[in-house]
Amino acid sequence: MTLTVIATLKARTGQEQALSESLRGLVEPTHREEGCLKYEMHLSHENPGHVIFVESWASRPLWEAHMESPHLKAFSAMQDELVESWDLFVGEKTAG
């Protein structure tokens, strides 16, 4: 089973650029992680500070290891300062 993760984040007012820069720093190290099949960062044209990650992982345990990675832990330490809200979808693609 391939795990699909969609993370949606909204920056705090005035933190749009800082959030974008911080999140961009996650992309390259995540691409090097075991089990990462896709890790795409998308910035909204209509809503500044609105970011969506579309991810595919070889398994849930490998995604869970990603969530404990040093670069994600470093981002988590400053998340409260940068992020107003976030939502996480974790599931799998179905046939059809």
Give average pLDDT, whole number. Answer: 95
Specify Rg, calculated over alpha carbons: 13 Å
Architecture per CATH nomenclature, i.e. the level-2 architecture: 2-Layer Sandwich
As a percent range, the share of helical residues equals: 25-40%
Q: Could you give the order of strands across the largest sheet?
A: 2-3-1-4
Please identify the top-level CATH class.
Alpha Beta
Order of helices and strands: EHEEHHE
Profile the largest sheet: 4 strands, antiparallel
The overall strand count is: 4
Query: Rough shape?
Result: globular
Low-confidence stretches: none
Kindly estimate the percentage of residues that lie in beta strands according to DSSP: 35-45%
**Which structural class do the helices and strands define?**
alpha+beta
Distance between the termini: 15 Å
Q: How many structural domains are formed by the residues?
A: 1
Could you name the CATH topology? Answer: Alpha-Beta Plaits
Number of helices: 3
Domain ABM: 3-93
InterPro entries: ABM_dom (IPR007138), AI-2_Isomerase_LsrG (IPR050744), Dimeric_a/b-barrel (IPR011008)
Protein name: Antibiotic biosynthesis monooxygenase
Organism: Meridianimarinicoccus roseus
Can you give a write-up of this model?
GO terms for molecular function: monooxygenase activity. This is Antibiotic biosynthesis monooxygenase. It comes from Meridianimarinicoccus roseus. InterPro entries: ABM_dom, AI-2_Isomerase_LsrG, Dimeric_a/b-barrel. This protein has one domain (3-78): Alpha-Beta Plaits (2-Layer Sandwich), CATH 3.30.70.100. The model has no long low-confidence stretch (mean pLDDT 95). With 96 residues, it is α+β, with helices and mostly antiparallel strands. The chain starts with a strand and ends in a 5-residue tail after the last strand. 39% of the residues lie in helices and 35% in strands. It is globular.
